[in-house]
Every structure is written in structure tokens, then in C-alpha cells.
UniProtKB/TrEMBL annotation:
Source organism superkingdom: Eukaryota
Organism of this sequence: Durio zibethinus (Durian)
Record InterPro entries: Homeodomain-like_sf (IPR009057), Myb_dom (IPR017930), Plant_SW-associated_TFs (IPR051953), SANT/Myb (IPR001005)
Origin organism lineage: Eukaryota, Viridiplantae, Streptophyta, Embryophyta, Tracheophyta
Domain Myb-like: 18-70, 71-121
Residue ranges occupied by any HTH myb-type domain in the UniProt entry: 18-70, 71-125
Descriptive protein name: Transcription factor MYB83
One of the GO BP terms on file: positive regulation of DNA-templated transcription
Low complexity bias: start-end ranges: 130-140
Gene symbol of the encoding locus: LOC111287879
Entry-linked PROSITE patterns: HTH_MYB, MYB_LIKE
Amino acid sequence: MRKPDRDMGKDMRVNNKKMKLRKGLWSPEEDEKLIKYMLNKGQGCWSDIARNAGLQRCGKSCRLRWINYLRPDLKRGAFSPQEEEFIIHLHSILGNRWSQIAARLPGRTDNEVKNFWNSTVKKRLKNKTSVSSSPNNNDSSEPRDVVGGIFPVHEHDVMALFKDSSSTSMPPMATGNQFDPFPPLNNRYDMTGAFDVPTCITQGGMGEGFWGDYGILEPGKIGLEGDFSLPPLESRSIEDNNAANNSIDNMKRNNNHYNNTCFSNTDQSFKVGDMFGLENHQWQGENLRMGEWDLEGLMDNISSFPFLQFQVE
DNA sequence: AAAAATGGCAACCGCTTATTT
DNA sequence: GAAATAAGCGGTTGCCATTTT
């Protein structure tokens, strides 16, 4: 429901003055204000941020703008074929849980994934399936058994597989938590935690046995024998993790919005914790529990996991 | 060249969930 | 425990650019 820029929303009070809230597209000036504020003050209550940054926007709008567009760790740019495959695969398991899917794609937002799905993937799958005229393909809003004939994924099959694994070769998880075939890469929204998105795990990459026969689930290949000990994301190597990027100029230079390149291009990594001068890594302790093998559980947290490296094309 | 159709995506809305008072 | 507030999420809309007619 995007309205033209001139459209104004409801009121907000600043210094007891009634101000009209802006809606619609963000101007570069607004972006700059928000970036500046976020860099200086970090994340807080969004309605305060909106007010204190001098933006005539509601907090919700600021949050969205930051998360979906201005965050320095966003990858942006076209989805790679690997990412596409991964999205399709995850969607076959998770359905329209865009945030969960996005959480497993470094530098991507739920909005981005959702848009990509609705505008591109859906269509592609439709074409594919109309050619193969598989009976099992319709709209993709629900988890499917077959996605375009590529991925034979069935929720309970996966579950069974995990159950089997747990009874036989499932390792005693170091963290005692549930097994997650596609662990979220990070708590991306937690500005107190450092993360280096583009350097996300790489061991072989997708394609090479990643999918086949649930390749990713094969104990021998992916460490089900017990090795989940990859270092947490935030401690992985970063090519040039110089907090020198810690300036709006750099952000602008790298941000699509300003010159069509990506914020954290493939050859550049950010640690937001560094950018913001923060050292807490709250995410490390999130929610580790052993529980029943429900799907949600499956997709819940786990410590780091050999994964894949996406490239922006 | 102009109009219409289509695609991509930013941003809003409304609902749900979590947290605070 | 209830109410208020904030945050998170998915669905949807509509603008703009590109492609097709």
C-alpha cells in the first residue's frame, strides 16, 4: 500500500509539537539521518529512534527501513542460483515462514526473500511444473512434497530421518539442542551481536552433494558424527574486518541505494558489533534446549554448522 | 513512438507475540 | 492477571522501470 511520497500519515509529538508523520518512499536525507543515528546510538526503541533522529516517521517505518534496506550487513543484488535453490528447498520445508528462511540466508531479509519468491521463484516453478505436468504442483504457499520435481522433500520423511539419526548416530550435541539442518545463520537483528555475513560458512558449497538424498543430512558428510564445533559466526575469519568501514561515507559507497552496489559486497565483510563498538554476543546463548522433534524444533537453533557460501552475482 | 502489460520491489497494514508496567 | 507498548511477521498494495504490442 505504498502511497506517493507526499502522502502523510498520522501525527506524532515532538517537543510537544504536533508533527505529521511521513509515509511512502524514503528520501536520501531521511536515510542518512537514520543511518547516522543508528551508527551513533545503536538500536533502541524504534519510536524513540524515529523521534530522536529527527525523522517524521513512525518507529515501525524506521525499523523496516533499517532492517530491509539500510543495515550494513545486507547483501542485496540478485539472488544466486544457489540461493534460489536453497530458498526453494527451505520453502518446501518451512512454507511461507519468510523470516525463518531469510534467517538462513546471509544478508537477505524476509521481505527480499518473500518478494523474490512471489515474483520469480513461483513463476519459475510453475513453468517447470507445467512442462513436467506433475500432479503435485500448485501454488506454493504450503509446504510441498515435490518442488518442481527437484527436491523430494517431505516433512515427515525429514523428521523420520532425524529420528533415525537421533536413535543411531545422532551425536550428543555439544550444545544439547535440537538438530537443525539449516540453522539460522545468526540473530541478524540483534545489533549487539557481531556478525560477518559474507564470510558465512563454506565447506564445499551447495551443489556438491548438498541436496542429493538429503546430502546435507548424511552423517558422514556433514558432521553428524559429532563435529558441530565450527566456530560461531562472529569469530570466523574476515577478509578485511577493518572497522574502517565505520562511516556513512563507506556505507553510502557500498549501498545500493546510492550507487547500485551492495553494502557488504562479496569481498567485504562487516562486523556490526565492531561498527557499533559493541562486544556482547547475546545470540550465542539463545534458547538451547532438547525437545521433541517437531518441525519448528528442527529449524531452531543449533551451534554453527558447515554450510555454504553465497555469491552475489 | 505510444500505449498497455508485466515484473520487481519498497513500504504499508493488520495481526500476533513478547515484554513491560 | 490485565492493559499497554513494542517488536516481529506475513500479506498486500502500488510505484516505477522495462518489455511487449
